[in-house]
Every structure is written in structure tokens, then in C-alpha cells.
Design a protein that fits this description.
Number of strands: 13
Number of domains: 1
Distance between the termini: 10 Å
Order of helices and strands: HEHEHEEEEEEHEHEHHEEE
Strand content: 35-45%
CATH architecture: 4-Layer Sandwich
CATH topology: Deoxyribonuclease I, Chain A
Largest sheet: 7 strands, mixed
Radius of gyration: 18 Å
């Protein structure tokens, strides 16, 4: 097959990873900002972390965004807690979600090693029916504890060692809030020197990037998209989004910004 024929048959898609910051800040306004700004991106796959949902179901970040964007959704709620939402004490959970334009063939919630000082950590793994290909996406939110480098490495290893993440005929992606930069030893273990897991934004020309400047310093880069080098994926572009105040509400969508990558599923 000629390169031109391969380009014609390749299936383009846009993937976004975004930490939604639970119900902190001005939640109702932020949810409007998220909805509007994500809608402008027209994503095919959205990996969300810290998805707030009230116990009574009246408030649901992932459900609201899925309906507004017209996407399939899978949610893994966790970390039950009473939180202050727009000034109201609200029993709730926060967890992981994956929204997809493609049907979700299968999904699972993978418990990760955790520390009582941090609480429950899980990963959400989804297999998506992306035309002739299967796109397998692992959505992660690794521990935030600054001294827990070894635990972050164990958490990521637990995800990457799962059988779904070893099927090289699938397109394999792991993304989310790693709570560490890619040059941190616990992440470099999987990307250097083997190069098995590739930094998708960098492969598409986005480097360096800053994804969480507010609390972690002006160059904090905690949110990543990695893909397996041996699987049928090609990255064509990358940029940061939701990285300025919303024009209608004047608020920032989150304390993180979104990482957006444009890729192709190869035939």
C-alpha cells in the first residue's frame, strides 16, 4: 500500500485528557465553561479525572458533559466524601470517566496500590470500537503525595501490565493526571531508555508544556498522553486547551488545563 493510500484509509481522531477539579471553586460556572470549551474542541475521546457527582445524582460532571457533547460515557466513581459545592455541604464522590464518540466495547475499573494518607486510587480502562481498530485507553490519576514516587511507579506499572495494555494489534494509550512530570524517575522508568511508551504531545511537536501552574509552580507539567510505540497510531498535532478564562463566564474551567492530541489510527 502506498503512503498516500495509507493516509486515505487512516482514521483521524482527537483525544483530550482533563482534570475537572471536583467541585472546587465556582462549580456551576466552571461546568458551563467546561461544556462550552470542550464543545469547541469537538473531541472523539475525552478522559476525565476528579469527576464530581453528588450522592443524589443532581450534580454529575461526567454525565452533564457526555450529554452536552453527544458522547458515550463510562464512569468509575470513587473517593466518597462530603464536599463543599458552591457553598453547600454535599455528600459526593469523585472518580474517573471516559467519554467517546465510538461505542465502548468493554471497560473495567482497576484498583491501584494506595496509601491511607491519599485514599482510594483506581484506573479506568476502556476498549473502544474505533472502526476496524480497537482503541484501548487507560485513564489514570496517580497519587498526589510528593514523597510517594515508588507508589506512583507501582500504580503505573499495574496499569501497563494489565493484559489489555499488551495487545499490540490494538492502539494503546494511557493518559490522565500523573501528578509528576515525565522526566521524574518513576515515569522515565517506562519511557527511557526503552522508548516503549511514547509522549504523544512531544511526538506531535508540543514541548515543553505546562498543565497545572496554579499550585505547582509556573512550569508544572502533570497531565500526559502516552502511546505504545509498537501499536498502530500516528500523532499529527497537539495543543493545550481550556487554558484561558471562559469568554461567557469569566472563570477558568479548572486548576488544570486540558491536553489535546490529534492522531490517526493506521489501517
Amino acid at each position: 500500500m502506498t503512503p498516500e493510500a495509507m493516509r486515505q484509509r487512516a482514521a483521524p481522531f482527537r483525544l483530550v485528557t482533563f482534570n475537572t477539579w471536583k467541585c472546587d471553586g465556582a462549580y456551576a460556572l466552571r461546568l458551563q465553561a467546561m461544556t462550552r470549551q470542550l464543545g469547541l474542541l469537538a473531541p472523539d475521546v475525552v478522559a476525565l479525572q476528579e469527576c464530581f457527582a453528588s450522592a443524589d445524582g443532581a450534580l454529575d460532571t461526567a454525565g452533564h458533559l457526555a450529554r452536552a457533547l453527544g458522547l458515550h460515557s463510562v464512569v468509575a466513581q470513587a473517593r466518597p466524601k462530603t464536599r463543599l459545592c458552591d457553598g453547600v455541604s454535599t455528600p459526593s464522590r469523585s472518580g474517573m470517566a471516559l467519554l467517546s464518540r465510538w461505542p465502548v466495547r468493554a471497560h473495567l475499573v482497576l484498583p491501584l496500590p494506595s496509601d491511607p494518607a491519599d485514599g482510594e486510587r483506581t484506573a479506568l480502562l476502556c476498549q473502544l470500537d474505533a472502526g476496524p481498530r480497537t482503541l484501548t485507553v487507560a485513564n489514570v490519576h496517580l497519587t498526589h503525595l510528593p514523597w510517594a514516587q515508588a507508589m506512583r511507579q507501582q500504580q503505573l506499572r499495574t496499569v501497563l501490565d494489565h493484559p489489555w495494555m499488551r495487545v499490540l494489534t490494538d492502539a494503546l494509550v494511557v493518559c490522565g493526571d500523573f501528578n509528576a512530570p515525565l522526566h521524574a524517575d518513576e515515569i522515565r522508568h517506562f519511557t527511557v531508555p526503552s522508548g516503549v511508551w511514547v509522549d504523544a504531545p512531544r511526538a506531535a511537536g508540543l514541548h515543553p508544556k505546562t498543565t497545572c501552574p496554579a499550585d505547582h509552580g509556573p512550569r508544572a507539567d502533570l497531565d500526559h498522553v502516552l502511546s505504545h510505540a509498537a501499536t498502530p497510531l500516528r500523532w499529527r498535532g497537539a495543543f493545550l486547551a481550556l487554558n484561558q478564562p471562559d469568554g461567557a463566564t469569566g472563570v477558568w474551567a479548572s486548576d488544570h488545563v486540558a491536553v489535546c492530541v490529534d492522531g490517526e489510527l493506521l489501517p
